[in-house]
Every structure is written in C-alpha cells, then in structure tokens.
Amino acid sequence: MMPFNEAVARTEYREALALAELTWAQRKRVQWINEMLDVYGFINRKHIMRKFDVSEPQASKDFTMFLTIFPHRATYDKNTKQYKRDIPK
Question: Tens digit of pLDDT for each residue in 25-40?
C-alpha cells in the first residue's frame, strides 16, 4: 500500500474540479489528449482537428485548457511542432 501523499491528493482534487467545469465535449477532448500522450508520447493540433472535426483555433484552445489543468504533463517541441509527454524525473 502506498503512503498517503497530501500534495498529490491536492493536485488530483484540483484537476478533477477543473475537468468538472468543462463542457462534455471539452472534457472528452482534454481526456483524449491525455490518453494519446500516454499511448504515443506526443500529439499535435492536427490530431485533434481530425479526430473531433474542430478548427485549428479550437484545437489550440484545447491544448491551452489541457496545459492549464495538467501543467507538467506535456511541453511543446518547436522543432517537431508537437506536444510531447513530460517524463517525471
């Protein structure tokens, strides 16, 4: 059994509250971004545009929402123009 970590619990609570404030469609896109980072390790706007049939500005807004909720989950790589999963140290 893992020991209780208050900081982790606070972070998870904050993330859950932030997700609850999104619309159903926004929440599904943000959750999908998170899943794709877990599976593939990277994602870009075109992936969201194709999957959800949204505009480029909407895909950018989705990444902004994602990074607001999960600030240490991904970083933008200017060379590849992709968001890449941050590996915890």
Answer: 999 999 999 999 999 9
Tell me the sheet residues that pair with 49. none
Q: In this structure, are residues 36 and 43 in contact, taking their beta carbons and an 8 Å threshold? A: yes
Spatial distance between the Cα atoms of 34 and 71, rounded to a whole number of angstroms: 12
Please tell me the distance from the alpha carbon of residue 14 to that of residue 70, in angstroms, as a whole number.
10
Which helix (H) or strand (E) is 86 found in, with range? none
Report the distance separating Cα 76 and Cα 79, nearest Å. 9
Which two tokens mark 29? 């896109």
What span, in angstroms and rounded, lies between the C-alpha atoms of 76 and 67?
Answer: 10
Please tell me the pTM assigned to this model.
0.80
